[in-house]
Design a protein that fits this description.
The chain is α+β, with helices and mostly antiparallel strands. The chain contains four helices and four strands, in the order E-E-H-H-E-E-H-H.
């Protein structure tokens, strides 16, 4: 069974890079992933449990996500810090930004 980059075998987060090859998965602990996203571990855990990250799913005891997850987490947290926005509103604002960029 793959271990987290820090060697731990607790809760693991499997991240598929957007530009990576299929199966090019990196495993991270909650603390490692929070550091990469520039957020607090508690914030990350709360938002994962609250459904703040569409497309992220728990499969076989691992959270499965893609590289855009990191950008979304950073943007949501920045909106909360800058504008004292609620978590739900920051997620919606990020969604609107994604729509605006796509359109």
């Amino acid at each position: 069974m793959p271990k987290n980059l820090d060697g731990s075998s607790g809760l693991r987060f499997a991240v598929n890079p957007l530009d990576g090859m299929p199966g090019d998965v990196r495993y991270f602990s909650l603390a490692e992933l929070a550091e990469i996203c520039n957020v607090e571990p508690e914030w990350l855990q709360r938002n994962l449990a609250g459904g703040g990250f569409p497309g992220v799913e728990l499969l076989a005891g691992q959270w499965q996500m893609t590289g855009d997850f990191v950008l979304r987490a950073r943007l949501m947290r920045q909106l909360e810090r800058d504008f004292k926005a609620l978590v739900v509103r920051s997620g919606c604002a990020v969604d609107l930004g994604e729509v605006a960029v796509i359109d």
